[in-house]
Structure formats: C-alpha cells, structure tokens
Design a protein that fits this description.
The protein is 95% helix and 0% strand. The protein is mainly α. Keywords: Coiled coil, Membrane, Transmembrane, Transmembrane helix.
Length: 62
C-alpha cells in the first residue's frame, strides 16, 4: 500500500469514528426525549392541580 492509500484509509477511519460518535449522541438524545415524554403527563397534571388549588384559595378568600 502506498502513502496516498494509507492517508485515504486513515481519513475513512476518522470519518467512521466521527459518524459512530454522532450516532451514539443521537441515540442518547432519543433516549432522553423518550424519558421526558413519559414524564410530561405528570408535569401537566401537577400544573393543573396548582392552578385549581390557587383558584380555590383565591375564591375561598372572598
């Protein structure tokens, strides 16, 4: 193998490593989004409960 072929091979290997790292990053982001999506209904219900309690306390005051 000559020097040019070795350089091209190194360049391709670097590209493979870069793409592998990007794929791992995307998988991690996807997992994070799935977890956040799972907890979203709890956050929404918590916000609704807060609004209801605040409105009830406000109405009870008057």
């Amino acid at each position: 193998m000559n020097e040019i072929e070795e350089l091209e091979l190194e360049k391709l290997q670097a590209e493979v490593h870069k793409l592998t790292a990007e794929a791992r990053k995307l998988i991690a982001e996807s997992s994070k989004m799935k977890r956040e999506t799972m907890f979203y209904p709890f956050v929404a219900v918590g916000g609704a409960v807060t609004v209801i309690v605040t409105a009830a306390a406000f109405l009870h005051k008057f």
